[in-house]
Every structure is written in C-alpha cells, then in structure tokens.
C-alpha cells in the first residue's frame, strides 16, 4: 500500500498529477479541491490511496488526511466507486459533504455528475452513521472557489477535458466552461473552479 508521497510536481492536467519521487514518476488522480491547493510546480506532499483492480491500478492523492478518510468512507457505500467518490470530492470539500449529510441536502448531491436521486438518498442514509464523529467538528463550509476565468482556446479545451474526466457529459462540460469563460485569466484551473462553483 502506498499511503503518502513527497516529491516534485512535474505536470498538472486535471484531474491527473505527475510527481517525481526519487526518479520515479507517479501518476496520481486528485479531486479538484486538492488539485487547486497545489502549486503549479515544486515539492508537494500527498496522502494517497492505492486501488488495485483486475483491469487497472490507480493511485489517488489528497491534500489532507480528512479528504482521504472521506474518500475511503465513500467507496464503501454500495454503488460508489473511486471515480464517483473523486467526482464528489471535486464538487465539494470534506466539510461541505459532511454538511450535506448532516442537513439531508439531496439537491446539492444530485448536481454532482453520476449522482442521481437514489444514489444521493443512499449516500445520506449510509454516510450519516459513518460521519457522526465529523458532526461535532463545527460548521462545515464548501470548498473555496475562484472567480470567473479565461477564454483562451487551450485553457477551455483542458477545462472541458477535466470535467469530462470527472463524469460530466462532453456537451455539458462545454456549456459549463463557456458559461464562465471571461477575460480575467488564461488558466484552465480557474475555468474548472468557476464551472464547479456555478453548479453548487
């Protein structure tokens, strides 16, 4: 089991990261909350979860132990795999999800790609008992989001690809990105942030 990585961040292409750890390049999938918290380059540290399946091996990385803890709890829910758990944590941070469960906020959950009403209701029921110890940690807040961003073709393309990778349909990803494209930046990260914020 690979539980933690410390190395040089070589590439960021949401939601994938490439990290050089002593000459070995680790490909890591990260939720957008973690992705936005990392610098564009330099040394980074991630708490990780390694998933081994018959057809693939994938490493998931998180900026905090709480994010990883919630990811591990989510994938124990019937019908929720790593991809859906990643989409959930990309749409809201750990305290934000805990707040949804605490307040039975089905509407916030069904906005997440791959989460229908039945899945949302199952998440609320199954996660309520598993997250009891989180409810005493104070008011939860949604993940910080950035201002509306760029309209550069390359940034738009990268942002759309990232949203598709998170489970959104291509046509929906295009609509989301174009709805927030502005003149303030030329970074794909800003577009993704703004698009996800708009979905809340």
Automatic annotation (TrEMBL):
SUPFAM superfamilies: DNA helicase RuvA subunit, C-terminal domain (SSF46929), Nucleic acid-binding proteins (SSF50249), RuvA domain 2-like (SSF47781). It is found in: Cytoplasm. CDD domains: UBA_RuvA_C. GO terms for biological process: DNA recombination; DNA repair. It comes from the Bacteria. Residues 151-200 are annotated as: Domain III. Homotetramer. Forms an RuvA(8)-RuvB(12)-Holliday junction (HJ) complex. HJ DNA is sandwiched between 2 RuvA tetramers; dsDNA enters through RuvA and exits via RuvB. An RuvB hexamer assembles on each DNA strand where it exits the tetramer. Each RuvB hexamer is contacted by two RuvA subunits (via domain III) on 2 adjacent RuvB subunits; this complex drives branch migration. In the full resolvosome a probable DNA-RuvA(4)-RuvB(12)-RuvC(2) complex forms which resolves the HJ. HAMAP family: DNA_HJ_migration_RuvA (MF_00031). Has three domains with a flexible linker between the domains II and III and assumes an 'L' shape. Domain III is highly mobile and contacts RuvB. This is Holliday junction branch migration complex subunit RuvA. It comes from BD1-7 clade bacterium. The gene is ruvA.
């Amino acid at each position: 089991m690979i539980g933690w990585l410390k190395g040089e961040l070589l590439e960021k292409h949401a939601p994938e990261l490439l990290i050089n750890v002593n000459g070995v390049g680790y490909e890591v999938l990260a939720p957008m909350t973690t992705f936005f918290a990392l610098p564009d380059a330099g040394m980074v540290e991630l708490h990780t979860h390694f998933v081994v399946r018959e057809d693939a091996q994938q490493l998931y990385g998180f900026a905090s132990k709480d994010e990883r803890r919630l990811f591990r709890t989510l994938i124990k829910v019937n019908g929720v795999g790593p991809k859906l758990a990643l989409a959930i944590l990309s749409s809201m941070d750990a305290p934000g999800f805990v707040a949804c469960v605490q307040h039975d906020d089905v509407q916030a959950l069904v906005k997440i790609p791959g989460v229908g009403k039945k899945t949302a209701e199952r998440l609320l029921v199954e996660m309520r008992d598993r997250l009891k110890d989180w409810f005493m940690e104070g008011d939860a807040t949604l993940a910080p989001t950035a201002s509306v961003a760029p309209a550069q073709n390359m940034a738009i393309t990268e942002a759309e690809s990232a949203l598709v990778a998170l489970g959104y349909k291509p046509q929906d990803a295009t609509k989301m990105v174009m709805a927030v494209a502005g003149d303030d930046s030329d970074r794909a990260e800003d577009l993704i942030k703004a698009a996800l914020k708009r979905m809340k």
